[in-house]
Amino acid sequence: MDKDTIAFIGGGNMARSLIGGLVARGRAPGALRVVEPVEALRTALAADFGVATFDAATGAAAGAGTWVLAVKPQVMKAVCESLAPLAATGRPLVVSIAAGITAGQIDQWLGGGQAVVRTMPNTPSLLGAGATGLFANERVDAAGREAAEALMSAAGLTAWIPDEALMDAVTAVSGSGPAYVFLLAEAMQAAGEAQGLAPDTARTLVLQTLLGAARMLSETGEDAATLRKRVTSPGGTTQAAIESFEGNDFRRLVHEAIAAATRRGRELSAG
Ligand SMILES: NC(=O)c1ccc[n+]([C@@H]2O[C@H](COP(=O)([O-])OP(=O)(O)OC[C@H]3O[C@@H](n4cnc5c(N)ncnc54)[C@H](OP(=O)(O)O)[C@@H]3O)[C@@H](O)[C@H]2O)c1
Question: Which residue range or ranges hold the Pyrroline-5-carboxylate reductase dimerisation domain (predicted)?
Fold first, then answer.
């Protein structure tokens, strides 16, 4: 078992982002293997990153110290069961990025007794700007945590979650979160157009405003409330808009939306 070798089971969008991030951070491509049934994806991964590709899981997974399970949730059970004999002998660190599949399910499908890190990345991971929640089961040691964190950091920021039940809240906040921003963008653009702006102009202004505001949030070190108050002069235009939002209970809407997503995540995980 080579602890530095990582086998990706599934070479789709998310695996590609992680592999690209790892190679860009200096990880030797020779230590990365990918199992992917689609030949065109295998060829592209080998050509773009110099990684070894396989069409069957067993070849790649044997001897690799870390397995990254990067297939769709629907096929995860079958994929894990096919790998169970190798997991029993190799005892790799298993990192799953599948939404809604618990560490306990993965452990059970792999035969039990496995070190499993369940992660929840989001779509900006595809650009290296992701936010990923990580949960480790009791079999994962300090070195395993470090390895999983280094892996997921290749796609953005990471946060450890102490209790797996909170992964549904992570899914609701950061997993689904980009869609809330996209919804806000849609609504702001439509509202700008309703006020007479040309669609292209409204789109450009909204896009740059969201980007600029997100950069202020992450780069100034100030919290959101402080930044909001700073642009809200008494009696001004921003105050008129904020009062309208607050009067329509914007915070309650967001609270309820995230609670609904958390509940749905819990239901989906329960099967
Ligand atoms: N994309 C995101 O933003 C995002 C965010 C959070 C979590 N995730 C999770 O990440 C996982 C992967 O998502 P993705 O967007 O990367 O999906 P994807 O692009 O569909 O990648 C999955 C790849 O795995 C391949 N595959 C299927 N069965 C396989 C097997 N038995 N052995 C090896 N490879 C197999 C698929 O091939 P076929 O097409 O032939 O089936 C596909 O190319 C999912 O579980 C998803 O829940 C994704």
Answer: 164-268
